[in-house]
């Protein structure tokens, strides 16, 4: 039998009849170029997947950091305000609203931790009012959280972990 340098022979034992324990040695031939090309393609696909995932995670962390800064500053600056127009006019509240749909999961998680006027940010971002009736901040917070869960914007784990 003549060996060709571009082909690798791998031994493989195949049982032909297990009752009589008769085995025959068989070889499967692989073209080394095919193997190298396939591995390279798999490596590139894996690398691209990791890059896409890394970009998504980095983007989420960036958004989380931006939201947390705006939220923290907003709380500090509006702690003693009682007028809704002043609370909404705050530049940090407006910054949260300007984040748009990206802010919704973060807002819902904060509302789960502590009901707040952030429900008004959801009204502005979604252009939707959660109820036709007047609700307390606690009731509106619960209604928005239920809405977020049913629209798959957050899940129970998000609320449990507070992430």
Strand order of the largest sheet: 1-2
What is the radius of gyration? 29 Å
Structure class: alpha+beta
From the N-terminal CA to the C-terminal CA, the straight-line distance is: 64 Å
Give the ordered list of helices and strands.
EEHHHHHHH
Estimated share of beta-strand residues: 5-15%
Low-confidence stretches: 20-25
Shape from CA axes?
A: elongated
On the 0-100 scale, what is the average pLDDT? 81
Count the DSSP helices: 7
Largest β sheet strand count, sense and barrel closure: 2 strands, antiparallel
- Portion in helices: 55-70%
Per DSSP E runs of 2 or more residues, the count of β-strands stands at 2
Keywords:
163 residues, alpha+beta, two-stranded antiparallel sheet, 7 helices, elongated
Describe the structure.
The chain is of the alpha+beta class and 163 residues long. It has a domain at 60-161. Helix content is 61%, strand content 13%. It contains seven helices and two strands; from the N terminus they run E-E-H-H-H-H-H-H-H. It has helices spanning 32-78, 84-89, 91-98, 104-113, 118-126, 137-150, 156-161; strands spanning 7-17, 22-31. A two-stranded antiparallel sheet has the order 1-2. Strand 1 and strand 2 (22-31) form a beta hairpin. Helix 1 (32-78) packs antiparallel against helix 3, helix 3 (91-98) packs across helix 5 (118-126) and helix 4 crosses helix 6. The longest helix is centred in the middle third of the chain and has 47 residues, at 32-78. The radius of gyration is 29 Å and the shape is elongated. The protein starts with 6 loop residues before the first strand and ends with a helix.
């Amino acid at each position: 039998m003549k060996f060709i340098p571009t082909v690798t022979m791998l031994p493989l034992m195949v049982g032909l009849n297990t009752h009589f324990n008769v085995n025959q040695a068989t070889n499967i031939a692989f073209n080394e170029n095919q193997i190298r090309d396939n591995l390279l393609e798999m490596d590139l696909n894996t690398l691209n997947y990791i890059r896409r995932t890394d970009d998504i995670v980095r983007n989420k962390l960036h958004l989380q950091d931006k939201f947390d800064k705006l939220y923290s500053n907003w709380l500090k600056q509006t702690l003693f305000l009682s007028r809704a127009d002043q609370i909404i006019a705050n530049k940090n509240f407006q910054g949260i609203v300007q984040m748009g749909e990206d802010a919704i999961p973060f807002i819902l998680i904060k509302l789960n931790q502590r009901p707040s006027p952030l429900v008004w940010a959801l009204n502005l971002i979604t252009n939707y009012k959660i109820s036709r009736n007047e609700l307390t901040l606690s009731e509106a917070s619960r209604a928005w959280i239920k809405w977020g869960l049913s629209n798959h914007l957050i899940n129970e784990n998000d609320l449990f972990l507070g992430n």
